[in-house]
Amino acid sequence: MHLRLNVPDWRAGEVACGVRASLPWLGGRSRDRLAAELMGWSEATVRCGALDLVASARYGLVVAIRSLGLVGARIAVPAYVCPAVLTGLRAAGAGPLGIDIEEGSFRFAPGGLRRAVTEEGCAAVVAPATYGCNQDWELLGSLAAPVLDDAAYQAGLVDGGGRMCGARGAAGVWSFRFKALAGVGGGVLLSGRGSEPSHASTGRAPRVGSGELRQLGDYLLRSILRHWIPRALGGAWRPQAGQAEVRACHLAIEERPMSELQAAVALGQWQRREEIGRRQRRNTAMLLDALADAPAFRLAGEPVDGRFVHLLPLLVDPRAGDEGEALLAARRFLWERGIQTEDPYPVTLGEPEAFPSAHELTRRLLLVPCHPSLGEREIRHVAASLAACSEAILDRRGAGSSREVAAVGA
Protein backbone atom coordinates (compact mmCIF):
# COMPACT_ATOMS: atom_id res chain seq x y z
CA MET A 1 0.00 0.00 0.00
CA HIS A 2 1.28 3.46 -0.91
CA LEU A 3 -0.83 6.51 0.00
CA ARG A 4 -0.37 9.00 -2.78
CA LEU A 5 -1.41 12.64 -2.80
CA ASN A 6 -3.42 13.01 -6.00
CA VAL A 7 -5.97 10.19 -5.90
CA PRO A 8 -9.37 11.58 -6.91
CA ASP A 9 -12.52 10.46 -5.18
CA TRP A 10 -14.37 9.65 -8.39
CA ARG A 11 -17.42 7.46 -8.78
CA ALA A 12 -19.26 6.17 -11.85
CA GLY A 13 -20.97 9.52 -12.42
CA GLU A 14 -17.75 11.50 -12.89
CA VAL A 15 -16.27 8.77 -15.06
CA ALA A 16 -19.34 8.48 -17.29
CA CYS A 17 -19.64 12.25 -17.70
CA GLY A 18 -15.94 12.59 -18.47
CA VAL A 19 -15.96 9.84 -21.09
CA ARG A 20 -19.10 11.25 -22.69
CA ALA A 21 -17.65 14.77 -22.82
CA SER A 22 -14.47 13.47 -24.45
CA LEU A 23 -16.51 12.19 -27.42
CA PRO A 24 -17.42 15.34 -29.35
CA TRP A 25 -20.18 13.74 -31.44
CA LEU A 26 -22.22 13.15 -28.28
CA GLY A 27 -22.37 16.87 -27.56
CA GLY A 28 -23.32 17.95 -24.06
CA ARG A 29 -24.31 20.95 -21.99
CA SER A 30 -22.18 20.40 -18.91
CA ARG A 31 -20.90 23.97 -18.87
CA ASP A 32 -24.44 25.37 -18.86
CA ARG A 33 -25.55 22.94 -16.16
CA LEU A 34 -22.51 23.62 -13.98
CA ALA A 35 -22.92 27.39 -14.29
CA ALA A 36 -26.61 27.14 -13.39
CA GLU A 37 -25.93 24.97 -10.33
CA LEU A 38 -23.11 27.20 -9.10
CA MET A 39 -25.15 30.36 -9.49
CA GLY A 40 -28.14 28.74 -7.80
CA TRP A 41 -25.95 27.78 -4.83
CA SER A 42 -24.49 31.28 -4.75
CA GLU A 43 -27.93 32.88 -4.75
CA ALA A 44 -28.92 30.68 -1.81
CA THR A 45 -25.68 31.38 0.07
CA VAL A 46 -24.11 34.82 -0.32
CA ARG A 47 -24.75 36.31 -3.70
CA CYS A 48 -21.46 37.08 -5.42
CA GLY A 49 -22.49 38.80 -8.66
CA ALA A 50 -21.10 37.53 -11.96
CA LEU A 51 -19.69 34.03 -12.41
CA ASP A 52 -17.44 32.83 -15.24
CA LEU A 53 -16.24 29.31 -15.98
CA VAL A 54 -12.62 29.49 -17.09
CA ALA A 55 -9.87 27.05 -18.05
CA SER A 56 -7.99 27.56 -14.76
CA ALA A 57 -7.99 29.64 -11.60
CA ARG A 58 -4.79 31.33 -12.73
CA TYR A 59 -6.53 32.49 -15.91
CA GLY A 60 -9.35 33.73 -13.69
CA LEU A 61 -6.76 35.89 -11.88
CA VAL A 62 -5.58 37.25 -15.23
CA VAL A 63 -9.14 38.23 -16.19
CA ALA A 64 -9.80 39.79 -12.76
CA ILE A 65 -6.62 41.89 -12.89
CA ARG A 66 -7.47 43.15 -16.36
CA SER A 67 -11.10 43.90 -15.53
CA LEU A 68 -10.11 45.85 -12.39
CA GLY A 69 -7.65 48.01 -14.34
CA LEU A 70 -4.60 46.63 -12.53
CA VAL A 71 -2.39 45.93 -15.56
CA GLY A 72 1.04 47.34 -14.76
CA ALA A 73 0.24 47.68 -11.05
CA ARG A 74 2.15 46.26 -8.11
CA ILE A 75 0.05 43.63 -6.35
CA ALA A 76 0.90 42.23 -2.92
CA VAL A 77 1.21 38.46 -2.48
CA PRO A 78 2.54 36.42 0.44
CA ALA A 79 6.18 35.44 0.00
CA TYR A 80 5.13 31.81 0.47
CA VAL A 81 2.64 31.27 -2.34
CA CYS A 82 1.73 28.78 -5.06
CA PRO A 83 3.80 29.49 -8.22
CA ALA A 84 0.56 29.48 -10.26
CA VAL A 85 -0.45 32.74 -8.54
CA LEU A 86 2.76 34.44 -9.64
CA THR A 87 2.27 33.09 -13.16
CA GLY A 88 -1.21 34.61 -13.28
CA LEU A 89 0.01 38.02 -12.12
CA ARG A 90 2.86 38.13 -14.62
CA ALA A 91 0.63 36.96 -17.48
CA ALA A 92 -1.74 39.84 -16.68
CA GLY A 93 1.11 42.35 -16.78
CA ALA A 94 1.08 43.01 -13.03
CA GLY A 95 4.11 42.99 -10.77
CA PRO A 96 4.04 40.74 -7.69
CA LEU A 97 5.17 42.49 -4.53
CA GLY A 98 6.25 39.90 -1.99
CA ILE A 99 5.26 40.37 1.66
CA ASP A 100 6.68 38.17 4.37
CA ILE A 101 4.31 35.98 6.35
CA GLU A 102 3.64 35.60 10.04
CA GLU A 103 5.97 33.12 11.69
CA GLY A 104 4.66 29.57 11.28
CA SER A 105 1.66 30.71 9.25
CA PHE A 106 0.52 31.27 5.66
CA ARG A 107 -0.95 34.70 6.48
CA PHE A 108 0.52 38.05 5.54
CA ALA A 109 2.57 39.72 8.24
CA PRO A 110 0.18 42.59 9.07
CA GLY A 111 2.80 45.31 9.40
CA GLY A 112 4.46 44.48 6.11
CA LEU A 113 1.15 44.37 4.26
CA ARG A 114 -0.01 47.72 5.68
CA ARG A 115 3.28 49.37 4.71
CA ALA A 116 3.01 47.98 1.20
CA VAL A 117 -0.42 49.54 0.71
CA THR A 118 0.21 52.86 2.44
CA GLU A 119 3.88 53.53 1.62
CA GLU A 120 5.10 51.30 -1.22
CA GLY A 121 2.58 51.93 -3.98
CA CYS A 122 0.81 48.59 -3.75
CA ALA A 123 -2.43 48.90 -5.77
CA ALA A 124 -4.13 45.61 -4.80
CA VAL A 125 -3.71 42.41 -2.78
CA VAL A 126 -4.05 38.77 -3.78
CA ALA A 127 -5.16 36.80 -0.71
CA PRO A 128 -4.44 33.09 -1.29
CA ALA A 129 -6.07 30.50 0.96
CA THR A 130 -2.95 28.36 0.83
CA TYR A 131 -3.82 24.69 1.49
CA GLY A 132 -7.29 25.97 2.45
CA CYS A 133 -6.11 28.20 5.33
CA ASN A 134 -7.77 31.62 5.43
CA GLN A 135 -6.01 34.94 5.37
CA ASP A 136 -6.94 37.55 7.98
CA TRP A 137 -10.02 39.02 6.31
CA GLU A 138 -10.54 41.59 9.05
CA LEU A 139 -7.10 42.98 8.21
CA LEU A 140 -7.72 42.77 4.46
CA GLY A 141 -11.06 44.56 4.80
CA SER A 142 -9.38 47.48 6.53
CA LEU A 143 -7.00 48.18 3.64
CA ALA A 144 -7.57 50.93 1.09
CA ALA A 145 -6.90 48.55 -1.80
CA PRO A 146 -9.00 45.98 -3.70
CA VAL A 147 -8.50 42.37 -2.65
CA LEU A 148 -8.57 39.34 -4.95
CA ASP A 149 -9.88 36.34 -3.02
CA ASP A 150 -7.80 33.39 -4.24
CA ALA A 151 -10.01 30.63 -2.84
CA ALA A 152 -8.58 27.96 -5.13
CA TYR A 153 -8.73 25.39 -2.31
CA GLN A 154 -12.17 26.48 -1.11
CA ALA A 155 -14.65 25.81 -3.92
CA GLY A 156 -18.14 25.64 -2.42
CA LEU A 157 -17.06 26.56 1.12
CA VAL A 158 -18.36 29.23 3.49
CA ASP A 159 -15.98 30.62 6.10
CA GLY A 160 -16.60 31.03 9.82
CA GLY A 161 -18.04 34.49 9.29
CA GLY A 162 -20.72 33.16 6.96
CA ARG A 163 -18.97 34.56 3.89
CA MET A 164 -18.74 32.66 0.64
CA CYS A 165 -15.09 31.81 -0.01
CA GLY A 166 -14.06 33.44 -3.27
CA ALA A 167 -16.61 36.25 -2.95
CA ARG A 168 -15.03 38.19 -0.08
CA GLY A 169 -13.16 40.71 -2.21
CA ALA A 170 -13.45 42.68 -5.44
CA ALA A 171 -13.13 39.37 -7.32
CA GLY A 172 -12.12 35.81 -6.52
CA VAL A 173 -11.38 32.40 -7.97
CA TRP A 174 -11.99 28.72 -7.34
CA SER A 175 -10.02 25.83 -8.81
CA PHE A 176 -11.15 22.35 -9.77
CA ARG A 177 -7.58 21.08 -10.25
CA PHE A 178 -7.51 18.64 -7.34
CA LYS A 179 -8.28 21.00 -4.51
CA ALA A 180 -11.58 20.86 -2.60
CA LEU A 181 -13.00 19.00 -5.60
CA ALA A 182 -10.97 16.92 -8.05
CA GLY A 183 -11.57 17.55 -11.73
CA VAL A 184 -9.38 17.66 -14.82
CA GLY A 185 -8.67 21.36 -14.39
CA GLY A 186 -10.97 24.30 -14.81
CA GLY A 187 -11.79 27.16 -12.51
CA VAL A 188 -14.39 29.76 -11.61
CA LEU A 189 -14.02 33.54 -11.62
CA LEU A 190 -16.34 35.21 -9.09
CA SER A 191 -16.95 38.94 -9.40
CA GLY A 192 -18.38 41.33 -6.84
CA ARG A 193 -21.96 42.48 -6.56
CA GLY A 194 -23.09 44.65 -9.42
CA SER A 195 -20.42 43.24 -11.76
CA GLU A 196 -21.16 42.16 -15.28
CA PRO A 197 -19.87 38.85 -16.68
CA SER A 198 -16.34 39.26 -18.05
CA HIS A 199 -17.17 37.17 -21.11
CA ALA A 200 -14.14 35.01 -20.30
CA SER A 201 -16.46 31.98 -20.28
CA THR A 202 -18.65 32.83 -23.25
CA GLY A 203 -18.45 31.43 -26.74
CA ARG A 204 -18.15 27.96 -28.13
CA ALA A 205 -16.78 25.31 -25.79
CA PRO A 206 -13.17 24.59 -26.77
CA ARG A 207 -12.31 21.21 -28.22
CA VAL A 208 -11.01 18.63 -25.79
CA GLY A 209 -7.24 18.88 -25.73
CA SER A 210 -4.80 16.00 -25.60
CA GLY A 211 -3.58 17.17 -22.20
CA GLU A 212 -7.07 16.94 -20.71
CA LEU A 213 -7.56 13.46 -22.17
CA ARG A 214 -4.26 12.33 -20.65
CA GLN A 215 -5.26 13.75 -17.29
CA LEU A 216 -8.67 12.09 -17.52
CA GLY A 217 -7.00 8.74 -18.19
CA ASP A 218 -4.42 9.27 -15.44
CA TYR A 219 -7.01 10.24 -12.84
CA LEU A 220 -9.34 7.45 -13.93
CA LEU A 221 -6.55 4.92 -13.35
CA ARG A 222 -5.74 6.49 -9.98
CA SER A 223 -9.39 6.44 -8.92
CA ILE A 224 -9.55 2.70 -9.67
CA LEU A 225 -6.21 1.58 -8.18
CA ARG A 226 -6.20 4.19 -5.40
CA HIS A 227 -3.66 3.06 -2.78
CA TRP A 228 -2.28 0.16 -4.76
CA ILE A 229 -0.48 2.14 -7.47
CA PRO A 230 3.11 0.82 -7.58
CA ARG A 231 5.75 3.28 -6.43
CA ALA A 232 7.66 2.62 -9.66
CA LEU A 233 4.98 4.39 -11.71
CA GLY A 234 6.35 7.81 -10.83
CA GLY A 235 5.36 10.58 -8.48
CA ALA A 236 6.32 8.54 -5.43
CA TRP A 237 10.08 8.82 -5.31
CA ARG A 238 12.00 8.99 -2.08
CA PRO A 239 12.14 12.62 -0.90
CA GLN A 240 15.38 14.42 -1.69
CA ALA A 241 16.97 17.56 -0.29
CA GLY A 242 16.46 20.76 -2.23
CA GLN A 243 13.30 19.74 -4.09
CA ALA A 244 11.48 22.96 -3.19
CA GLU A 245 14.25 25.06 -4.69
CA VAL A 246 14.18 23.35 -8.09
CA ARG A 247 10.42 23.11 -8.47
CA ALA A 248 9.06 24.79 -11.63
CA CYS A 249 7.70 28.28 -10.99
CA HIS A 250 6.26 29.19 -14.38
CA LEU A 251 3.13 27.38 -15.50
CA ALA A 252 1.31 27.69 -18.81
CA ILE A 253 -1.93 29.63 -18.99
CA GLU A 254 -4.59 28.85 -21.55
CA GLU A 255 -6.70 31.94 -22.06
CA ARG A 256 -9.99 30.26 -22.82
CA PRO A 257 -13.28 29.22 -21.22
CA MET A 258 -13.67 25.98 -19.28
CA SER A 259 -13.94 23.04 -21.65
CA GLU A 260 -16.90 20.69 -21.77
CA LEU A 261 -14.72 17.88 -20.37
CA GLN A 262 -13.53 19.99 -17.45
CA ALA A 263 -17.11 21.05 -16.72
CA ALA A 264 -18.49 17.52 -16.95
CA VAL A 265 -16.17 16.11 -14.28
CA ALA A 266 -16.46 19.25 -12.12
CA LEU A 267 -20.26 18.96 -12.28
CA GLY A 268 -20.12 15.38 -11.02
CA GLN A 269 -17.88 16.43 -8.14
CA TRP A 270 -20.05 19.45 -7.35
CA GLN A 271 -23.16 17.29 -7.11
CA ARG A 272 -21.35 15.03 -4.61
CA ARG A 273 -19.77 17.87 -2.63
CA GLU A 274 -21.64 17.14 0.61
CA GLU A 275 -20.57 13.49 0.61
CA ILE A 276 -16.99 14.50 -0.22
CA GLY A 277 -17.08 17.17 2.49
CA ARG A 278 -18.14 14.67 5.15
CA ARG A 279 -15.10 12.51 4.44
CA GLN A 280 -12.82 15.54 4.38
CA ARG A 281 -14.09 16.58 7.82
CA ARG A 282 -13.72 13.03 9.15
CA ASN A 283 -10.16 12.69 7.86
CA THR A 284 -9.20 16.12 9.20
CA ALA A 285 -10.65 15.38 12.63
CA MET A 286 -8.88 12.01 12.88
CA LEU A 287 -5.50 13.49 11.99
CA LEU A 288 -5.90 16.49 14.28
CA ASP A 289 -6.76 14.14 17.15
CA ALA A 290 -3.60 12.16 16.35
CA LEU A 291 -1.38 15.21 16.89
CA ALA A 292 -1.78 14.74 20.64
CA ASP A 293 0.45 11.67 20.24
CA ALA A 294 2.86 13.39 17.82
CA PRO A 295 4.45 16.32 19.73
CA ALA A 296 7.16 16.80 17.08
CA PHE A 297 4.48 18.31 14.84
CA ARG A 298 1.90 21.05 15.14
CA LEU A 299 -0.79 22.34 12.84
CA ALA A 300 -0.06 25.27 10.54
CA GLY A 301 -3.19 27.34 9.94
CA GLU A 302 -6.84 26.60 10.60
CA PRO A 303 -9.21 24.72 8.29
CA VAL A 304 -12.41 26.21 6.93
CA ASP A 305 -15.61 24.34 7.80
CA GLY A 306 -13.61 21.97 10.00
CA ARG A 307 -11.76 20.35 7.12
CA PHE A 308 -8.59 20.35 5.15
CA VAL A 309 -9.50 19.26 1.66
CA HIS A 310 -6.33 17.79 0.18
CA LEU A 311 -3.24 18.22 2.36
CA LEU A 312 -2.76 18.55 6.10
CA PRO A 313 -0.09 21.24 6.71
CA LEU A 314 2.11 20.50 9.72
CA LEU A 315 5.19 22.20 11.14
CA VAL A 316 8.17 20.29 12.47
CA ASP A 317 8.96 21.38 16.02
CA PRO A 318 12.28 23.29 16.26
CA ARG A 319 13.25 21.01 19.15
CA ALA A 320 13.77 18.26 16.56
CA GLY A 321 17.04 19.90 15.53
CA ASP A 322 17.96 21.60 12.26
CA GLU A 323 14.61 22.25 10.60
CA GLY A 324 15.61 21.31 7.08
CA GLU A 325 17.25 18.04 8.10
CA ALA A 326 14.45 17.14 10.51
CA LEU A 327 11.84 17.78 7.81
CA LEU A 328 13.66 15.59 5.31
CA ALA A 329 14.03 12.89 7.95
CA ALA A 330 10.29 13.01 8.70
CA ARG A 331 9.36 12.84 5.01
CA ARG A 332 11.64 9.85 4.45
CA PHE A 333 10.30 8.13 7.57
CA LEU A 334 6.74 8.46 6.24
CA TRP A 335 7.81 7.39 2.74
CA GLU A 336 9.24 4.19 4.19
CA ARG A 337 5.79 3.57 5.68
CA GLY A 338 4.12 4.07 2.33
CA ILE A 339 2.97 7.69 2.77
CA GLN A 340 3.79 10.26 0.10
CA THR A 341 4.30 13.87 1.17
CA GLU A 342 4.28 17.08 -0.86
CA ASP A 343 7.18 19.43 -1.57
CA PRO A 344 6.71 22.89 -0.06
CA TYR A 345 6.42 25.73 -2.55
CA PRO A 346 9.70 27.47 -3.38
CA VAL A 347 10.16 31.05 -2.21
CA THR A 348 11.18 32.84 -5.42
CA LEU A 349 10.44 36.51 -4.67
CA GLY A 350 13.53 37.29 -2.60
CA GLU A 351 16.45 36.12 -0.53
CA PRO A 352 16.12 34.67 3.00
CA GLU A 353 17.01 37.99 4.63
CA ALA A 354 14.09 39.67 2.83
CA PHE A 355 11.52 37.00 3.77
CA PRO A 356 12.89 35.14 6.80
CA SER A 357 9.57 33.65 7.93
CA ALA A 358 8.70 32.35 4.46
CA HIS A 359 12.09 30.72 3.99
CA GLU A 360 11.94 29.19 7.47
CA LEU A 361 8.50 27.77 6.66
CA THR A 362 9.87 25.80 3.71
CA ARG A 363 12.34 24.17 6.10
CA ARG A 364 9.64 23.10 8.55
CA LEU A 365 6.52 22.38 6.49
CA LEU A 366 5.32 18.78 6.30
CA LEU A 367 2.40 18.26 3.90
CA VAL A 368 0.53 15.02 4.59
CA PRO A 369 -2.32 13.54 2.49
CA CYS A 370 -5.83 13.80 3.93
CA HIS A 371 -7.98 13.79 0.76
CA PRO A 372 -11.42 12.12 0.73
CA SER A 373 -10.36 8.99 -1.15
CA LEU A 374 -8.52 7.94 2.03
CA GLY A 375 -10.68 5.68 4.14
CA GLU A 376 -10.58 5.30 7.91
CA ARG A 377 -8.03 2.49 7.67
CA GLU A 378 -5.63 4.66 5.65
CA ILE A 379 -6.09 7.68 7.92
CA ARG A 380 -5.39 5.53 10.99
CA HIS A 381 -2.18 4.41 9.28
CA VAL A 382 -1.16 8.05 8.67
CA ALA A 383 -1.98 8.92 12.29
CA ALA A 384 0.04 6.02 13.70
CA SER A 385 2.95 6.85 11.39
CA LEU A 386 3.01 10.49 12.52
CA ALA A 387 3.15 9.35 16.16
CA ALA A 388 5.97 6.91 15.42
CA CYS A 389 7.86 9.52 13.39
CA SER A 390 7.50 12.07 16.21
CA GLU A 391 8.88 9.63 18.75
CA ALA A 392 11.82 8.68 16.53
CA ILE A 393 12.76 12.31 15.92
CA LEU A 394 12.40 13.59 19.49
CA ASP A 395 14.22 10.59 20.95
CA ARG A 396 17.34 11.95 19.26
CA ARG A 397 17.02 15.56 20.30
CA GLY A 398 18.98 15.09 23.53
CA ALA A 399 22.30 14.79 21.73
CA GLY A 400 21.59 18.06 19.94
CA SER A 401 23.02 16.69 16.75
CA SER A 402 21.32 17.59 13.48
CA ARG A 403 23.25 14.76 11.89
CA GLU A 404 21.61 12.25 14.26
CA VAL A 405 18.15 13.70 13.60
CA ALA A 406 18.67 13.40 9.86
CA ALA A 407 19.71 9.76 10.33
CA VAL A 408 16.11 8.92 11.36
CA GLY A 409 15.08 8.98 7.71
CA ALA A 410 18.39 8.02 6.14
Can you give a write-up of this model?
The chain has helices at 12-21, 30-44, 57-67, 83-91, 110-119, 137-141, 210-225, 243-246, 260-271, 273-290, 323-336, 356-362, 376-394, 402-406, and strands at residues 51-54, 74-78, 95-99, 122-128, 147-150, 171-175, 187-191, 297-299, 311-316, 365-369. It starts with 11 loop residues before the first helix and ends with a helix. By secondary structure, it is of the alpha/beta class.
Helices and strands, with pairings:
Blueprint: H1 12-21, H2 30-44, E1 51-54, H3 57-67, E2 74-78, H4 83-91, E3 95-99, H5 110-119, E4 122-128, H6 137-141, E5 147-150, E6 171-175, E7 187-191, H7 210-225, H8 243-246, H9 260-271, H10 273-290, E8 297-299, E9 311-316, H11 323-336, H12 356-362, E10 365-369, H13 376-394, H14 402-406
Parallel strand pairs: 2-3, 2-4, 4-5, 5-6
Antiparallel strand pairs: 1-7, 6-7, 8-9, 9-10
Helix pairs in contact: 1-9, 2-9, 3-4, 10-13, 11-13
Which terms would index this structure?
single chain; 410 residues; alpha/beta; seven-stranded mixed β-sheet; three-stranded antiparallel β-sheet; 14 helices; 12% strand; disordered C terminus
